[in-house]
Write a structure and sequence with these properties.
alpha+beta; 7 helices; globular
């Protein structure tokens, strides 16, 4: 009797288990034993995705230009153009480009108007950044004994409005270059510059202050004149400079002209 009750109980438990797994009572144990295999089967179904992922991760390093990746749903790619980094010019290259453009314009002006023609209030493209970059070419070429920390004599623009000296002081500071407040008449600027320790010679650099002797090229027969060098260029084997200048009649404006054989004048650099 007890044995029969135990058998009935065991059979009932097996029946319940079979019902939960969806198997028939007689196959309950067999159904339960197949569950790990089913789980493994599901895992195997996912294997292609895992293998695809592994293929991407273990693919050789992408070339420096051009990348193609199989993302399963399709292939996406970066072209050479997508990966190309735009070339960025250095400040020195940009400065050279600007001066080349200015030189082309100045040569056209020279061909059209001739040397010495006055151009009133024309655009001035020279900037302090350009002067700084281009003046680097003279580093180490300064005259022996020259002191870069020499006195500048600068106490502010003390010159009469619109005079050539007023313009020279103003423009020098716009270009990031020093100028003294009491350099004297236009003809005196390079001489005063020498006494203060400025580098002065007969070779023009952009941004220089240049002195005209009294009466030279239309300057005042007593006071002379001073101008700023806006460009230095070569044309047909000859050197020219482009200036910016002012005078009382220009009411704070300026004029420019192109002058050949510039070595006949003195130039105050810095």
């Amino acid at each position: 009797m007890a044995s029969a009750l135990v058998s009935a109980t065991v059979f009932s438990l097996m029946t319940a288990a079979a019902t939960m797994t969806g198997a028939t009572p007689g196959r309950a144990a067999s159904s339960l034993s197949t569950m790990p295999a089913m789980a493994a089967s599901r895992s195997e179904a996912r294997t292609p995705l895992a293998e695809s992922s592994n293929e991407v991760a273990s693919s050789p390093a992408a070339p420096s230009v051009g990348v193609s990746v199989d993302a399963g749903d399709g292939v996406w790619a970066l072209s050479d153009e997508d990966l190309e980094v735009p070339y960025s010019k250095s400040p020195a290259e940009k400065a050279q480009d600007l001066m080349s453009e200015q030189t082309a314009k100045d040569i056209e002006e020279l061909k059209e108007n001739g040397e010495g023609s006055f151009i009133e209030n024309g655009p001035l493209t020279l900037t302090a950044d350009v002067v700084k970059e281009l003046n680097k070419q003279y580093e180490g070429r300064e005259p022996e004994g020259w002191d870069p920390n020499h006195a500048t004599g600068d106490e502010g623009n003390a010159y009469s409005f619109s005079q050539c000296t007023w313009w020279a002081y103003k423009r020098r500071h716009e270009l990031g270059l020093p100028a003294g407040s009491h350099m004297g008449d236009g003809r005196m600027w390079t001489g005063t510059g020498k006494s203060l320790g400025y580098w002065v010679d007969n070779t023009p650099h952009i941004g220089d202050a240049m002195s005209f002797p009294a009466g030279s090229m239309g300057s005042d027969p007593y006071y002379g004149h001073v101008a700023i060098v806006e460009n230095v260029f070569e044309y047909e084997g000859k050197t020219y400079i482009k200036t910016s200048e002012s005078g009382a009649s220009y009411d704070g404006g300026h004029f420019s002209r192109i002058i050949g054989n510039p070595e006949r004048f003195e130039y105050m650099h810095y």
